[in-house]
Every structure is written in C-alpha cells, then in structure tokens.
Design brief:
This protein is mostly helical. It contains eleven helices and no strands.
Length: 313
C-alpha cells in the first residue's frame, strides 16, 4: 500500500536545523554580545560607547524573535533570553555598585576590603538569584540547570593533554583538580604580585570575610555564567560545544579582571571550560563550586593583603 502523503502542512514534522548552522549562530551571537566588542572598541577609540549595551540587547531580542520563524534559531531561543538577562543584571549591578547611596549602605563611601568586596558580592549573588528566577520562568528544573549536588563520582571524559585517563571518577579528579588549581593560582599570585612577607599578615583578621566572600563569588559566577548558560546550550548543542562556548564567553569577560589582559582571558577561559566540563559530567554544582571557591580564597587573600589589584571594569 502506498504511503499517505496527503497530510496537512501542520501535521508534517519540522525539519531539524543543521548542526553547523546551529553552531555558527550560537558562536556568532555569543561573541557579539560578549565583552569582545567592548574590548576592541576601547582599544581602538579609548572609550566604550553608550550604545553598546542597547545594541547587544537588540541583537538578542532579534535572535529570540527570529526563533519563531527560523528553525535554526528555535533551539537557542531560551539561551538568547538568558544571555539578555545576564547582560541586564551585569549592567544593573555595575550601576548600583557605583551609586553613592549603595556605598553609604554597605561600608560607607570609602570602605576597607571587607566592605568594598561585600558590596560587589551582594550584587553578584542577587544577580544569580535573578538568573535562577529566569531559568524557572523558562521552565527549567533545578536538575536541568545543575543546582543539585550531582554524582560526585561520575566518570570523567578522558582528556589526554590534561592527563585525564579513561576510568577516573570525579571524586578523585575533583580533589586533585581543587588542589592543583588552587596551588597553581597561589604560585601565579606570588610571582605576579611579588608579595612582601610583612604584608601577608594583614589578611589574617579578615579570614572569615575572605571565606564568606569567596563562597559568594563562586556561587554567583557558577550559577550565572556556567549553570544558567549550560542549561539551554547543553540541550541544543553537543555538550562539548556547549562547554567550549560558555568557557570562551567566561574567559572574554575576565579581560579586565584579575589577572587581566590576554593572560586573564586564557586562564579564565580554560578554567571556565574545565568547570563546565565538570558540571555537565557530574550533572551537579558541588565540584565546580568547590574548585572555584578554593581558587577565590587565594585571590581574595592576596587582594586583602594589598599585594594585587583587580582590573577595573
């Protein structure tokens, strides 16, 4: 019997977008709304134009709308919405942090290390809360955006150039990674900051603050820059491509961070890729947060002692 081909157009399955087209769109939009255009413009003109953020939001809005008619953009609509939410929370956080009323509320107009960093981290955690609300409104479950402990001993995908062999679990690899990344960060800070031994005891009275602020920063960044962006991309793209995409976005965002410049981008990008790989493979938040937290403890200790300064965004 001949196959019935008289079904209506609405009954026919929609063609799936090609993998290459999907990847090209994801990378093009991500790089366009990342900090990359700001870096290029500021390097060429010495300043950042005020229309940059509206232009990025307009691009994301257009990409979301295109998803209703263009099959290639459809699987990435939620990702574009979350990118827009991230840009808005970043911009709002920067504006509030520079406001005189916020400085008076938290630590005064000229706060010390604890007050200054607390202002930043309260806004970072608040931004993470906004991103979590956006994820829930888009009907992602906590498991889908990795806000669970996950499988702490999930098998790690082998990476030969990192010496990660087949068969190793994240219980062992996470412990090794936390130690190596923390000690590597410590070595970098010692070399780049050239701390005086007399300066380091300044940080000891602030140790409880350092631990609390590192925990807040690690949570805020892992939720906003990792979990929130991996949730839609890991479903729309191959997990490896999603991890790479979000790692590059995270790295570019640290151009004016600590460390800054190309070195900062490379280091943060590699870390972002690795923590994304960890989050996707364990399907959880624990190991990425712990590794990030321990690294931040090193960075905030040196910042507190006054031996290094973060780049100004």
């Amino acid at each position: 019997m001949a196959e019935n081909t008289t079904g209506t157009k609405a009954d026919r399955p929609r063609p799936l977008p090609s993998r290459r087209s999907l990847l090209t769109l994801a990378w093009a939009v991500t790089l366009s709304v990342s900090l990359l255009p700001d870096i290029v413009w500021q390097s060429a003109a010495g300043t950042r134009p005020g229309w940059m953020l509206p232009a990025k939001l307009a691009l994301l809005g257009g990409a979301v709308m295109a998803g209703f008619a263009w099959e290639t953009a459809r699987p990435l609509r939620k990702y574009f919405v979350l990118l827009a939410a991230l840009l808005l929370t970043e911009s709002a956080g920067g504006w509030v942090n520079g406001a005189a009323w916020w400085q008076r509320i938290i630590g005064g107009a000229a706060p010390g290390f604890a007050g200054q960093m607390l202002r930043i981290q309260i806004l970072r955690v608040t931004g993470a809360g906004v991103m979590m609300a956006a994820l829930l409104l888009l009907r992602f479950t906590r498991r889908e955006f990795f806000l669970t402990r996950g499988d702490l001993n999930a098998p790690a995908a082998p990476v030969r150039w990192l010496g990660i062999d087949k068969g190793i679990g994240w219980a062992r690899l996470g412990t090794i990674s936390a130690a190596c990344i923390s000690l590597g960060t410590l070595a970098f800070l010692v070399i780049s900051g050239r701390p005086l031994l007399a300066a380091m005891p300044r940080a000891l009275p602030f140790l409880p603050w350092i631990l609390a602020l590192a925990a807040m920063n690690a949570f805020g960044e892992e939720l906003s820059y990792r979990a929130a962006l991996l949730a839609p991309t890991a479903a729309a793209l191959e997990p490896g491509q999603a991890v790479l995409l979000t790692g590059v976005f995270f790295g570019i965002g640290h151009y004016y961070g600590m460390p800054n410049g190309i070195i900062g981008v490379a280091m943060a990008g590699l870390l972002g890729w690795y923590l994304g790989k960890c989050m996707v493979e364990t399907r959880g938040f624990f190991w990425p947060w712990l590794i990030h937290f321990l690294q931040d403890v090193m960075i905030f200790t040196f910042m507190c002692a006054g031996t290094i300064l973060a780049g100004a965004k």
